[in-house]
Amino acid sequence: MPPPPPRVSEHEVVVQDLDPRHDGVRIAQLSDIHVGNMTPASHVRAAVDAANAQKPDLIVMTGDYVCWRRHEAELAGEQLAGLSAPRVLAVLGNHDYFTWGSGVAAALERNGYEVLRNKTTIAQINGAPLALVGVDDPVTRHDDLDAAFKGSEKLAKIVLCHAPDRAPRLAQRGADLVLSGHTHGGQIYIKGITDRLMKKVGLRFRRGMYPLGKTTLYVTPGVGFSGITHRHGEGTAAEVALLTLRAA
To answer: 203-243, pLDDT tens digit by residue?
Structure first.
């Protein structure tokens, strides 16, 4: 039996320093695709269709497109093709580097997607600039915050970073919204037990919205499967997140 298709999870995020022209900007987020034997291609394509159906201003992807095998880099490019938005941006995750980081990046770029490796890009939306900051994967120590935030000064900052536990440091750098994945919401969530196990390995943010001063962190449980082809428990359902920015 195939897994349930990813659902769309909608959220509004108040950004204190947001340009009023960006009020209502819609960002679709996909993460933790994990193409290959664990995640059916039809499941990935359902996520692509769900993201496109929202007609977002931006589509962002926050890492782990593959599992463990080099040939999955090409699969990721093929299965994630066709994302439709004025800009599609991505950062890499730990599985991408465990497998073939440059190959995964190249496969995404062949689709016209922008892979941000410790880099800021500016999106002009409704005539106003918005900083999109891409932080390379912290788990494999590829992150460089000085390089990533260069050029984002004096603008509202949407930060893409695979690992949510880097968010407190990103908040110190002036991030307004941090979008992460990595945890799968625990994938198999048993109240009390999963939380305790995650904390033992240093994972403090399981899924959902977390206020960090003026910064908001959103952790999506993502799309695909790792380890086992099953998700179970509160907050683990596969999703495409849709975040609408609101001016304070």
So the answer is: 899 999 999 999 999 999 999 998 888 899 999 999 999 99
Percent of the chain with pLDDT over 70: 100
Angle between helices 101-109 and 72-79 (to 10 degrees): 20
- Rounded to an integer, what distance in angstroms lies between the CA atom of residue 91 and that of residue 94? 10
Sequence length of the chain is 248
Instruction: Dig out the tokens for 206 from the structure.
Output: 């399981």
Across 139-152, b (16+ Cβ under 10 Å) vs e yields bbebbebeebbeeb
Tens-place pLDDT, residues 11-46 = 999 999 899 999 999 999 999 999 999 999 999 999
d(CA 195, CA 176): 26
In a domain, 2, yes or no: no
| Structural domains counted in the chain | 1
Q: Taking the chain, what is the end-to-end CA distance rounded to the nearest angstrom?
A: 45
Whether this model's pTM surpasses 0.70: yes
Q: Which of 99, 39, 79, 59 is nearest to 223 (CA)?
A: 39
For 215, the domain range is 7-247
Give the CATH number of the domain where residue 155 resides: 3.60.21.10
